[in-house]
Predict the structure.
Amino acid sequence: MKIWDKFAHWTKEDFVEYFQKNSLLSKGSTNSKTAKNTRETRILYLAPAFQNSTGKTVCSHASKGCTDSCLFSAGRGAFQSVQVARSRRTEFFILYRLSFLFFLYCEIRDFDEKMKKAGKIGAVRLNGTSDLDFVYLFESLLQIRILDEFQNLVFYDYTKNPARVKRYKVSKYNLCFSRSECNDKDTLQVLSNGGTVSVVFREDELPDTWNGFRVVDGDKRDDLMLDNRNVVLGLRAKGKAKKDVSGFVI
């Protein structure tokens, strides 16, 4: 039985009723890496790749190495209850996208208001285990420009879509391009254009440079990309990635 089979009988009303009482966004404190962020953070976790009832991917540019090494089941993701929660959100997104986006918008709005009252800037990562252009989806489907509307929030993500990196190069949406075993050309192009990339290394001791660009320890905190530009965020192989032979891990 697949996890998403648990929701095969759910109607739109069932999803709406559930998410009126339960959040789509998780607090950064629930993840060991985002808990280290210098900004209060909210993050959205979905079931990655093709792990949903329709077989539609939420990670359009994922390579085989990326899929095999995915951190979906790492950390808290190893618990079935967490995987079920992520699958439930994904089914809501896939099947009832407009309603999902409306609920997501309301949660982001509430977080922005909280940060405004506190006189702080919060951070939002909408792709904890997915690779979707939510900025575009909000604008095209709901006519909402979240980057303009929420003045007390910054948005950041990892992506394997080089076009998306280029699209949001000058905006409040900070994107770090993720290297895989089959996108070295795009990776170096992003770096040459002043962007930031993440690279997974096998050894615990990260190199000082990679292809002539400075390497910073990307495991120190999740929002490091907001404060470092045109560098390599070095990540240490974790979970399944430790056994990678595809070239995804260097």
The helical segments are 12-19, 64-68, 80-95, 97-118, 134-142, 146-149, 162-167, 184-192. The radius of gyration is 18 Å.
